[in-house]
Sequence to fold (895 residues):
Amino acid sequence: MSVRHVARRVAASVAATAAAGTFAALAFTSPASAAGPASGSIVPNAAQPVAPFAANTPFDSGQNINVVIPVNSAFASPDNSTAKKVVECAAPNGVVPTLSSACDGLTIQGPTVVAAADGHFTLTSYTVYALPDSVSLGEGAGGPVCGNTLATECILYVGDDYNDFTKPHLWSQPFLINANGNDLGANPGDGTPEVPMAIILPASAMGLLGAAVLIRRRRKTARAA
Amino acid sequence: MQNHKLRTGVLRAAAVGAAALSTALIVGGGVASASIPPDPQGGATPVAPHFYNGNVEGIRDAGSDTTFFMMQRLGDLYTGAGLYGCTTNTTAGQTLFNSGETSTASNINFFCQSGQNVSTTDVNDNWDRTEVTQGVDLVGSGGGQNQLCQATPTPLPVDFSRSSKPAGSACSDMVQTGYAKDGVDTLTYPVNPTAIGTGVAATAPYSTMNGGVVGPVGNGWLPGDPNGGPYTGTALTTGGITNVGGAASSAYELWCATDTTRITDCGQLTNLGPNLEIQGVVLSNSASTGTITGTFPSTVAIGDAITGPDIPASTTITGVSGGTINLSNPPTNATDTVRITTASALAVGAGAPIGIPVRILGVNTNSGTEATWASYANSGVGSTGNCSANMDKNAALDPNPVTAVGDNATAHIALENNSDQVDQFAVTDFPGDAVSQAIEASTTLYIESDGVYNTNPYAAATTIAGVGYSGLKVPLNGKLPTTPTKLQNTYPTARTLFNIYRTSTIRASAGGFLNWICDGNTNFNKGLDNTTGINFDTELTNAIGSVFGFPRLTDTTVAPANGTPADGLAAPNNSCAASLAVNTTSGSNTITLTAGGNFPPDIVNAGGLATGGSVTVTGTGIPAGTSVSSGTGTSTLTLSASATATSGVGGVTVVFGGVPSVTTVASPQT
Fold:
């Protein structure tokens, strides 16, 4: 197999993956109805950094963020009378977890959160941790992992019962978080680069395709010469 | 061409690398060691930490409601592990693991055989097939401790008690093993009675309050506010409750006080200003005054704006004296509810009454949850406090005189940790009147385990007219329950969840189970749960922490800076670790047991833990960072550092990090 074939296959594969990822992201983020996201949806930008923070930087363990849930059909009346729980869950490569064991109950928020009749709410000062967290949560290995690589991406579960994914719930956008050994959140970020992946992946695919075409042309030119 | 070769080389290298990686993964993931394990230590003389005696036994706990379901899960995991335990005796005359027993035709399956393990045998997780059950006849931590100590009769044996409060005084030899943290929350229920049915209460006494129209008082609704909000009072979730100030604290005044300081009206908690509502103001046109029985709140001052249906616009207060205010404009003669705009807010508990009683729902006095709350409410007052015995001094009665008869004539006392009882009492009190039921629920304060609240939405909610309303956590001393505030004991009702055993009666099988819970793959490695493919310790951590919402403590958890939260009850983080009285000598790096004898074999020499680490030693006169160097199983341990103090008579108690709590058992055989 030539380099050209390899490059072509890689480029095609990446492009397909990126397209699929983009499609999946769009599918998740599209509102299910006029009432906003339906249960199980990802809510883009639900996990919002609080200024000041560095853009294009993972969250920093111990950083306080706001959890902003817009109008939605998942928590709208009558479900709004049930308190909402916010916990961190492992979401490797941004894939929404399917098992409750991916979620870390020790990361639950302190105050009770009750949604408005249209389902929206904002939880301020929610503390995010790189997981497992021994400093503040007293954790050892074995539980969900949230870190700063795509393989250790994190996501927030927001809903009625993090032990039961059949109950109304939404997900934040996947994000990255840096461990720091002290949970002071001294280098706050915005949890990216996960969100721009929908842009980066197609762009990367285009780049690879372009490179393949370039190589092909050069070889043609060389043969002609 | 050279470029082409280079690319080809790179690809070949990549292919070879990938193949090698794949091979490594296959080898690493698929071909595990499958040797048959030898029998573990134990038998006629069971040894720590597992205390295997080779006898199939049943053990039973009793007590706490808070930990009941969690212990069912942990007990099930342990019992389930026994599926891959020892091979029991099948015929008479077989050689048994326990040399003190004999296999006969009448005791088939009673004992583990010697040397009969198979490839699937798990020697670290309930090898001798103990069966764990949970008692429910006397629910509550205090009840469990009493049964353990035989201070209260028990229909079935109790090996250890489940407890959400520290060991008490039912007997003198109780040892507590704290394996999780929790906190006790007080909840207010955001039910809006005006949004239910007609929105008007049909039954006395609620039908007589504000014309039967009562909004969600806990959310800050005051009479006259729009039913759907916004509300001008202070929500309980904002104001909170404190125990700072002893008898003058809002917690004491709600739950304990029986004199005039008792908080009886919802307005005292929520009608704080600056938009202060004062009811029953007698307005005088001729005197240009307003008067009330009693005195105006301390924040009412000259210059405050005052409004009311019979008060001219732009009227201000020109004088305040006791129960009389002077007004800048003469009002119409009337008795009104007025609003005064104050410069500052009153303290929670000092608010102006609004004529709607607050209800305290009593809780089972055997409960550790109740005991924790009683201690919180009573703290700073001591043994003379009205909650020194329990928190139910002000438990509310059925407010409806028609139904407050017979069995319903006494104060409402609920089981701990289930908000749904709030509506069950309300339905009994106001049959057929959902609005009155809603008022009863919305004016109720109830306490509940934070872990239960977080993980059981049903138990966190009261259901009125078919809709479940989750309770709202009320801040305590300005704090809310989070894992850090519970672990560090900064949440005022942070507490440790224990299993408690007696040194004089602990059986080998119970000791092994308690140690299995306490150790987090530090002293010994748990095996894979053959049913799920997950390590048992991971399953324990997940069950305790995420399924039941309690931060787990193990034998390596260190003590927090503050060992006792504001409720005055010690909440240790390191009681899952072995704790022994030892003799120390200043300048010497050796210690001996005060009681004599040998140290247990699970206090291993340096590097001997399953993690490869060493057992840490902490206590008075032991330098920070000290660990065990050598001497395991002998009468003298050598430490990595010398003591800085000499222990007196009775020695000094030190904690051995990495060693689970039970180091010796009283009953090695059943």
Remarks:
- The first strand of chain A starts at residue 42 and ends at 43.
- The two ends of chain A are 24 Å apart (CA to CA).
- Residues 197-224 of chain A form the longest helix (28 residues).
